[in-house]
Amino acid sequence: MTRAVAFVGLGSNLAHPRRQLARAVRRLARLPHTRVTRVSCNWQSAPQGVSAPQPDYVNAVAMLSTALPPRALLARLMALERRHGRRRGANSARNAARSLDLDLLLYGRLRLVTPTLTLPHPRMHERAFVLRPLFDVAPAATIPGRGLARKMLTGVRSQRIARTRTHHMH
Questions:
Q1: Could you tell me the residue range of the domain that residue 66 belongs to?
Q2: Which amino acids are annotated catalytic?
Q3: For 134-143, b where at least 16 C-beta lie within 10 A, e where not — what string?
Q4: Is 19 helix (H, G, I), strand (E, B) or coil?
Q5: Are 4 and 92 within 8 A, CB to CB?
Q6: Residue 107 β-bridge partners
Q7: N or C: more exposed end of the chain, with fewer CB within 10 A?
Q8: Domain containing 107 — which CATH number?
Q9: What are the tens digits of pLDDT across the range 65-101?
Q10: Any residues with CB less than 8 A from the CB of 103 and at least 6 apart, and which?
Q11: What is the pLDDT of residues 93-128, one digit of tens each?
């Protein structure tokens, strides 16, 4: 079974965000043919691209070793979001507050554009809340078509982000 290294961005700003992330990581570890190999610290960041005020986000990045193909992994991530109360729909506001957001950021060195999945994640290089935790788990991570992720950190320096407590649930 071929395995790939995949990176998943986790975010929450509702219903005990740190606890949401801890539960989500445990559920990621239970996905078929998948192991969580590393998880970043939690980072607190201001919401991006929002019109109405909302709470800060707590973000992290998980590094997975998986034999699930990219679309199957994405389907599992969306099912996990729903299990955490996330609703995506035509009426959902873009960048609305959410209990859990899971983004498939990277899947090996794969570059893919489909109606449901774009790899690498199309905006990850513009987001401190993705780049900073990605650097925690994989300092040498490369974004296919863009280069070393750490080199993009300087371009997002103006975005407010700070390390925050990590919620460990046993």
A1: 4-164
A2: 86, 98, 101, 103
A3: bbbbbeebeb
A4: helix
A5: no
A6: 6
A7: C
A8: 3.30.70.560
A9: 999 999 999 999 999 999 988 776 655 566 678 899 9
A10: 8, 9, 11, 77, 121, 124, 130
A11: 666 788 999 999 999 999 999 999 999 999 999 999
